[in-house]
């Protein structure tokens, strides 16, 4: 089930979300081999960072909560990864983050030289004191960071990853489009939320708060993609709670071009990409239509 | 309140330490009242509120009780080893694949140091013709020495205070030369795991070894624990010969907390608290 | 399990959330008789309003999505209700909404004469084009509406009901406190979200988007209450996904004084109030402590 | 894809109309392929994408099929009655308590107009000594007239074109005078339900009647359907004598879509499309 995304041919309309598995090249390759059309690296930061102590990720059954806290070797300490990237035969998104426009620019400048197929700007992470979400909730800040990065990366297509916490996510998407983004990825985790253990009277996550993902956030993700589709002409990676082919079809009908998958790896294994692709394919066959036919069909 | 079944619950379930047992000067077992359905080799994430959460193998299990055995080394494990009955810990799990126990009659179990913890319930369950090879730094650090009196046990210590003076791998080679094994199970430091694997490969005996990496989620989502393309938490922690043959990073590379891939020795230094920044 | 809330004695620390059941006095009385400490009327508007067509409420198992759309007879057409209120022997919250500060003032002025025990300002509903949520996402607008209403109601204690969509809910709560609010209720529904039926390619809710409630939003509600507790000294009605006594205890530990219950009526019946109260009571007994002891204990 | 079991799914499940059957000039039955576990008197919420969603009683059920019978009256029901095989509808449910069928051997079933829909599966299930009393405006509007040929049926029409000229309540009084009933089941306009209840009270016969209110959620959350302190969607739609005695608003009051409580006559006018604003 080939699809074209910003000029690249993908073997499936499914995308591995950033921060799921993507800690090294080998596992990205395994995910690709499991039928994933486009794999995203764990978000890369300007300097080495450990992230938070455990507990960092808890499964709630109908979704997950996490505050991993943007661990990263830092873009300067990933020679092995950059070398591996050079020998790849499948498309990769490099996700990056920073605490300022300067940092985003600096990381993007370096990373674009390593020639990933796309660079994703994580302007939407709730799990750090100072990175990300601040940008993604302000149209002007979103414009600024995308615009600044666009200047340095020149040809690498840019994907802006947005947060559902934005009051008007359509407006943010439009600002990113104006700033030079080539696509939108939505959504990052929702909330944040908090779990308190009542026996020890302690928040369970070491960072106390964490972002929600998985099936429970899907209605919000679908609404966000719907709003973004209305507000821009950019292709959208619809992400948030997708677990089945039907979920992916729903996201496409909201306006997505590709279907991102994160937490579902937990619920259906790494083969979830193959499974979702097969289920989508079957559905399209049963209904005698193509992905193009149904994109944005719910509008 | 009745404790929910651990295999269903996903949040940490809070247990009060029921009793503790000092196994050796370095090792303490914490016992909990509760049922847990698990396979030997599986682990649980143990949360000490306000401190951290770490993976520990289930080392004891009874119909209404289970236990983990902690080697007091670093910040977390020292606090854990010092816990008293009534202290609270959160338990998530069990996670991981565990040992495949459906393989042949004559087995050899090789355990080094704290690696004895995961193989103990394996021995409990196997009930086969078992040869145990166990090593430690010194006599008093031999974990569970009295736990299997009827077992065909071979021991070694670094200082020669008990059994053979030397390595478990030497005892393994010896045992293999006089026995036929259908399967070798092993748990211990990764360098020892590699030697066991090499010996078994040479002798064409299949083996299963348990590995260790820094873990976050424990259930295959975050990728913190990857060894090459394998997630130690869910594809492992037990890997068989077939897998090991393809794992280039076995005994070679590991990720630090930051995700940086480093030589295993660097990782071990970090783990051994030599104040190497985890973000290298 | 008596508790005191702003000087009123309640038979339980549980509160019926607005918009759940509270369409007439008889059912409010039934809910009170089922062990609920404080019952809230369905939000009352300035003029008669039908709300949206069906589907308006869908149960997703781990929570609900709704876009009822603030139906209301309008405060001028509720003589029967106001008369019933006069003869009550249990405390009641009148929830009100408006599209402007003027409308809020007008409804509050009239309603306060009917002597409910509390007036709740719904500045947080996502299910209408122009009512509510706009206020609850801006500190200045929140201050303005609370302040304006405070002037006309004089003695009736005011509860400001907040939305998790606010970027910094603590800041909003503080603005409400500064404006004269006597308590905070958090949270209203989350999102909004959207469900699309892929067979008909249509959003299922007639209003397309709807707010999420129930177990799936609990982590977000707990985090909001935690943030509000940090930001103000006001008592908090913690609301969002509470279904069991343990859930309520968790909310109290985050900083709530009372535990609001909405969607759980669906999952455990109207007797959920009695059940939760009993479970809380048992927990407190088992742990030898009082509600006071554990309030905010997770901080 | 296999249809999931309706009692588990909570979102509308989409069904294509399998076939339709014109029952009378006003009534059409829509049949669907699917299993539904329900009790007679329960209803489903029927969603017509882009139009609206309304409650309908299950009027037919087989091992692999079920049906609803729609009286073409207003905007929604006219569209529903005009549906063709292959058209899509969403179904949520079943909801409500349904009739209590475990009560006595000799029963009387009273149905007026479209009220025959819920009692049809009741008759199918009871398999007892049943007296059916059914009324309609005119002969050709008598629903399911041929469905129970072996039944002891008494009919009436407003215009006298079939059976007794007059009301079902007259036939009920007559039947009671010559029979002993353990239970009377009734469904029809609320004024008729009230008369049935009054007759039964006088004769000290327990009865169960099905009521109708404007509904939103269908499962007891929103309060749109309250009749006093009773939620018609979940405490009902069937109420027994004991409940009815305490229901002051029975045949008196109902809520409009806005939540305004009005006399039942005002509600009926709204429902009958006399362009009364629902927000009075
Ligand atoms: C699947 C799995 C199962 C495990 N089962 C057990 C078990 O049954 N019993 C058990 O005791 N541990 C077990 N571990 C290891 C355990 O999770 C901790 O890593 C260990 O207890 C040390 O934690 P710490 O907090 O004390 O050390 P940290 O605070 O994390 O910091 C490092 C410090 O710990 C010491 N240290 C930590 N890890 C090592 C190591 N691998 N080698 C040498 N020194 C180390 C150092 O002395 C240093 O001071 C298991 C790990 C995995 C991945
Ligand atoms: C528990 C329950 C079970 C029901 N089961 C059935 C069933 O099995 N079959 C069935 O046909 N209906 C049933 N109904 C009624 C059904 O839900 C609709 O109200 C009805 O079909 C009319 O909807 P409408 O959209 O056509 O009318 P609306 O578009 O809602 O507007 C009013 C219009 O409908 C007509 N109308 C609607 N309701 C009534 C009424 N109660 N009395 C008189 N005129 C009315 C009027 O002519 C008017 O034009 C049930 C209702 C409930 C609460
Ligand atoms: C454990 C975990 C780690 C994550 N790390 C990142 C990250 O580093 N960068 C990022 O942009 N998103 C990160 N996310 C968010 C996901 O990419 C995704 O947006 C979110 O989980 C919603 O998708 P899902 O419901 O399919 O999981 C992470 C999510 C999880 C669960
Ligand atoms: C069907 C429904 C209707 C609601 N109507 C209102 C309303 O009119 N006014 C209001 O302030 N909140 C309304 N809410 C929000 C609830 O009061 C509550 O804030 C929310 O449902 C979260 O609590 P819960 O998870 O316990 O349901 C409504 C919620 C539902 C599910
Ligand atoms: S610890 Fe998260 S994938 Fe292994
Ligand atoms: S329709 Fe919602 S409570 Fe009855």
From TrEMBL, chains A, C:
Source species, domain of life: Bacteria
GO biological process: 'de novo' pyrimidine nucleobase biosynthetic process; 'de novo' UMP biosynthetic process
Residues that coordinate or bind substrate: 42, 66-70, 122, 188-189
Cofactor note: Binds 1 FMN per subunit.
Classification via Pfam families: DHO_dh (PF01180)
Catalytic activity: (S)-dihydroorotate + A = orotate + AH2
Domain (Dihydroorotate dehydrogenase catalytic) ranges: 2-283
Pathway field: Pyrimidine metabolism; UMP biosynthesis via de novo pathway
Alphabetical list of CDD domains matching this protein: DHOD_1B_like (cd04740)
Active site: 125
Keywords per UniProt: Cytoplasm, Flavoprotein, FMN, NAD, Oxidoreductase, Pyrimidine biosynthesis
Chief location of this protein within or outside the cell: cytoplasm
Cofactor(s) demanded: FMN
Subcellular location: Cytoplasm
Sites where the protein binds FMN: 18, 42-43, 122, 161, 187, 214, 240-241, 262-263
Entry GO MF terms: dihydroorotate dehydrogenase activity
Record's function text: Catalyzes the conversion of dihydroorotate to orotate.
Assembly information from the UniProt record: Heterotetramer of 2 PyrK and 2 PyrD type B subunits.
Protein name: Dihydroorotate dehydrogenase
The species this protein was found in: Desulfocicer vacuolatum DSM 3385
Gene name tied to this protein: pyrD
TrEMBL record, chains B, D:
Cofactor note: Binds 1 [2Fe-2S] cluster per subunit.
Keywords assigned by UniProt, alphabetized: 2Fe-2S, Electron transport, FAD, Flavoprotein, Iron, Iron-sulfur, Metal-binding, Pyrimidine biosynthesis, Transport
GO terms under biological process: 'de novo' UMP biosynthetic process
PROSITE patterns xrefs: 2FE2S_FER_1 (PS00197), FAD_FR (PS51384)
Annotated metabolic or biological route of this protein: Pyrimidine metabolism; UMP biosynthesis via de novo pathway; orotate from (S)-dihydroorotate (NAD(+) route): step 1/1
GO molecular function: 2 iron, 2 sulfur cluster binding; electron transfer activity; flavin adenine dinucleotide binding; metal ion binding; oxidoreductase activity
Domain FAD-binding FR-type: from-to ranges: 10-101
Name of one Pfam family that matches: DHODB_Fe-S_bind
Record's signal peptide: none
Assembly description: Heterotetramer of 2 PyrK and 2 PyrD type B subunits.
Family the UniProt entry places it in: Belongs to the PyrK family.
Function: Responsible for channeling the electrons from the oxidation of dihydroorotate from the FMN redox center in the PyrD type B subunit to the ultimate electron acceptor NAD(+).
NCBIfam families in UniProt: PRK00054.1-1
The name this protein goes by in its record: Dihydroorotate dehydrogenase B (NAD(+)), electron transfer subunit
Gene (name only): pyrK
């Amino acid at each position: 089930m080939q699809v074209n995304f910003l000029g690249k041919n993908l073997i499936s309309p499914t995308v591995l979300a950033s921060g799921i598995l993507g800690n090294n090249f080998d596992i990205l390759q395994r995910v690709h081999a499991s039928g994933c059309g486009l794999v995203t690296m764990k978000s890369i930061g300007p300097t080495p960072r450990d992230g938070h102590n455990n507990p960092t990720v808890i499964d709630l059954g109908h979704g997950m909560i996490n505050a991993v806290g943007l661990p990263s070797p830092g873009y300067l300490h990933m020679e092995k990864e950059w070398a591996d990237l050079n020998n790849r035969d499948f498309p990769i998104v490099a996700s990056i983050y920073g605490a300022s426009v300067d940092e985003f620019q600096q990381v993007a400048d370096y990373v674009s030289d390593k020639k990933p197929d796309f660079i994703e700007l994580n302007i939407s992470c709730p799990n750090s004191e100072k990175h990300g979400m601040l940008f993604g909730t302000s149209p002007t800040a979103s414009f600024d960071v995308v615009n600044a990065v666009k200047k340095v990366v020149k040809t690498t297509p840019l994907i802006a990853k947005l947060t559902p916490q934005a009051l008007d996510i359509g407006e943010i998407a439009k600002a990113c489009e104006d700033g030079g983004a080539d696509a939108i990825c939505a959504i990052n985790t929702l909330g944040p939320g908090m779990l308190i253990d009542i026996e020890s009277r302690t928040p369970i996550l070491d960072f106390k708060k964490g972002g929600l993902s998985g099936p429970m956030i899907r209605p919000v993700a679908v609404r966000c993609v719907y709003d973004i589709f209305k507000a821009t002409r950019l292709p959208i990676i619809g992400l948030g709670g997708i677990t089945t082919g039907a979920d992916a079809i729903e996201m496409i009908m909201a306006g997505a071009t590709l279907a991102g998958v994160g937490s579902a790896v937990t619920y259906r294994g790494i083969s979830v990409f193959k499974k979702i692709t097969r289920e989508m394919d079957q559905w399209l066959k049963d209904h005698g239509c193509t992905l193009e036919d149904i994109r944005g069909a719910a509008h | 309140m009745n404790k929910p079944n651990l295999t269903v619950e996903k949040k940490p379930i809070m247990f009060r330490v029921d009793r503790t047992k000092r196994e050796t000067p370095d090792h303490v077992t914490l016992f909990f009242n509760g049922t847990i359905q698990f396979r030997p080799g599986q682990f649980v994430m143990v949360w000490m509120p306000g401190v951290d959460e770490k993976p520990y193998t289930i080392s004891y299990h009874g119909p209404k009780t289970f236990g983990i055995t902690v080697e007091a080394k670093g910040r977390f494990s020292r606090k854990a080893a010092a816990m008293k009955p009534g202290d609270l810990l959160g338990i998530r799990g069990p996670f991981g694949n565990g040992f495949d126990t459906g393989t042949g009659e004559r087995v050899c179990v090789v355990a080094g140091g704290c690696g004895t913890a995961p193989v103990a319930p394996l021995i409990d369950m196997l009930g086969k013709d078992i040869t145990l090879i166990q090593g430690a730094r010194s006599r008093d650090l031999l974990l569970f020495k009295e736990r299997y009196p009827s077992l065909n046990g071979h021991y070694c210590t670094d200082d020669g205070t008990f059994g053979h003076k030397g390595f478990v791998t030497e005892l393994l080679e010896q045992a293999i030369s006089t026995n036929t094994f259908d399967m070798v199970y092993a748990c211990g430091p990764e360098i020892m795991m590699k030697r066991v694997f090499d010996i078994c490969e040479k002798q064409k005996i299949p083996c299963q070894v348990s590995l260790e990496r820094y873990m976050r989620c424990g259930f295959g989502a975050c990728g913190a624990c990857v060894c090459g393309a394998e997630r130690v938490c869910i594809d492992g922690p037990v890997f068989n010969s077939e897998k090991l043959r393809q794992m280039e990073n076995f005994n070679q590379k590991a990720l630090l907390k930051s995700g940086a891939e480093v030589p295993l020795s660097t990782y071990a230094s970090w783990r051994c608290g030599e104040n190497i920044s985890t973000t290298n």
